[in-house]
Fold:
Amino acid sequence: MYKNFTLLVGLISSLLIPEVAYSQSWEVYDTKLQLQSRLIYDDVDILSETVRIGKTGTQLSLLTNDLNPAVQLVGTEIYQYFAPWILVKGPTGIGAFHEYGQQVLPLEYEKIDTYFNMLLASKGKEYWLFERGKNKTTYLGELEEAKITNTGLLIIRRGNEYSLPLSFNPDKIFDFLSDNEGEFVLAKEASGFGLINREGDYVLDPIIEALQHTHGNFYYGFNQEQYVLIEGNDIKSNIRYNSFHKITFENDIMLEYIHGKLRRVMEDDGILLDDVGITSVNKIGKDLYNVHYRDAKIGLLGKKGWLVKPMLEVEEIKFGNEALFPAKSKGNFGFVNSAGTWIIKPQYAETTLFSEKIAAYRTSQNWGLISTSGEAIGTASWDEIKPFDKGIAIARSSGKFYLLNKAGSSINTEGFDNVFRTTDGYFMIEKSGKTGLLNSEGSEVIPAVFEKLRRERKDFIIAQKDGLTGVITESGEVVIPLAYEKILVDWENNLIFTKTNYVPTVIQVVEESGKKNKKGA
Structure:
């Protein structure tokens, strides 16, 4: 009579054995490729230089510095990471762990917002607040709205009543409370509008008849028949400008009218331009305005004054570069200087900005290149031309991409399906579904034979081919063989994680009556 049983021993193997489950093995190397440790996880996630997660089946573990399981995170997947909070998702909702391993919220909420040492969790209209300093979760009740402001105050709304439950007066009711990009909460009571600082104290008493946020810590309002521009301050807010003349604030443009006539372009705390004859102002970008005059002149106004002085025979002036500004006249674009003089006559349907003393222009159909003197460079035969950077531009023609030099000539004779410029001036190329790499001069360093390439740093490129991943240099030398399912790099700790499939080796132990055990693999 025989008794058969199986022992599973984990050995890395590429042997394919039918009906045997695969597991995952991770090897951890330093950046000198010296093996540091081996891990058995389905997946590893590097959230920060100190926070790493290991996953086995449906189990998540927070790992120690030496990559051993420290704390089980209960959930089945990492939902989000906002240091120091790890939001974890499970079958019944999301919960939260501190990155040190403490579970602070069970996995039962629909939404969790984080702010340093606070978490705001909700299910439907019900809200809870966890405060790490108190290590306590408080039920806030059923609310129409709850929000942690960008300064750490908590605003809640029940019906039409607002309150600040974390302030020194948590039961005080407001008619309105509003967060904004600044450091102050806009508050309204029966007496008027005011501003509240991060401590929950008024820095502008609620006496202003009308008040709204503009930018940063600046506010625009009306009080006692005066228009006011106010700057928030932690101790006491300051009125930076006040006027009995009408000031409007619409479409992010603030204008002042003197005796019913447009006279001033305003900024957040005062006058940006004071001039007669203004008829209208168009905002064309952040702190950029086209100012129109009664005599048909138009100028380009910036934060510090005129970028292009008012000039005739122009319909619009755009932001420029290298002292030249695209401007439109009679439907065509050219370039003007800061004095409002045409340097390149309006003759193009469209232009880009100058970059490295070259700009692109479009005729009725195609794009070409011009110098700062207006001289054509090459022929206008492209569907698109992107700005020059370090002597090379990317251009598109008939669905293919090319690299252009400053003479307007193509560096590569054969077009690519796509080209991406890396942050250090190299070029990732795609061709026939494969990826390669060009150096900063446009010469091929890695042929387009890979499914994926990711250039982590000089001479360290994570490459994937035939579904397997490895690391190669810019010359194509293999640093880590293309034999892995996944490679992660933790540069902060100088660690490289490699993941591979393996099949547990089956060792069969046979017991025979009256005889010693015989083992066979």
About this structure: Residues 26-39+418-499 form one domain.
